[in-house]
Design brief:
Blueprint: H1 6-16, E1 30-35, E2 40-44, H2 57-67, E3 73-80, H3 90-99, E4 104-109, E5 114-117, H4 119-122, H5 129-133
Parallel strand pairs: 3-4
Antiparallel strand pairs: 1-2, 1-3, 4-5
The structure holds tetrahydrodeoxyuridine.
């Protein structure tokens, strides 16, 4: 596949922030994923008065791509309104490892400070399907 359109990916993540539903934290996060077919899916964080059921921008973007039938995520971008780039939460790392294991992850702030990483770098030694297969007789 040719080089992903990173400019479009970043622009989508940036504009996704405008749809963030963040009445509690006021911390709007934007994300976007690009698939092997070149399609881009946005995500924003969506909060809830029952705080723990909030969904982060990263998972919304990934779930949205999967819901559209996409399975090969090439890259994702995440934009936070922070001084430095912010790191995805543990739940999102777990989901990224399973749904986008070979992807490049670009973390940005609003001033375009950026850092490249990967799901494996974000969650080394993560739990995955392989461990379920190893359950054997003791499981
Ligand atoms: N949040 C994200 O959407 N992504 C991150 O990487 C960090 C945290 C959201 C969850 C919550 O709506 C708000 O930011 C504050 O934690």
């Amino acid at each position: 596949m040719e080089r992903p359109d990173y400019a479009a990916l970043i622009a989508t993540a940036r504009s996704a922030r405008e749809h963030a539903y963040v009445p509690y934290s006021r911390f709007a996060v934007g994300a976007a994923v690009i698939t092997a077919s070149g399609k881009i899916f946005p995500g924003c964080n969506i909060e809830n008065a029952a705080y723990p059921v909030t969904l982060c921008a990263e998972r919304v973007a990934l779930f949205s791509a999967y819901a559209a039938g996409e399975r090969e995520i090439v890259a994702m971008a995440v934009i936070t309104p922070t001084d430095d780039v912010a790191s995805p939460c543990g739940a999102c790392r777990q989901v990224m490892l399973e749904l986008a294991p070979r992807s490049s992850v670009l973390l940005l702030n609003l001033q375009a400070v950026e850092r490249w990483t990967t799901p494996h770098e974000l969650l080394p030694h993560g739990f995955g399907a392989g461990q379920l297969d190893e359950a054997g007789s003791s499981g």
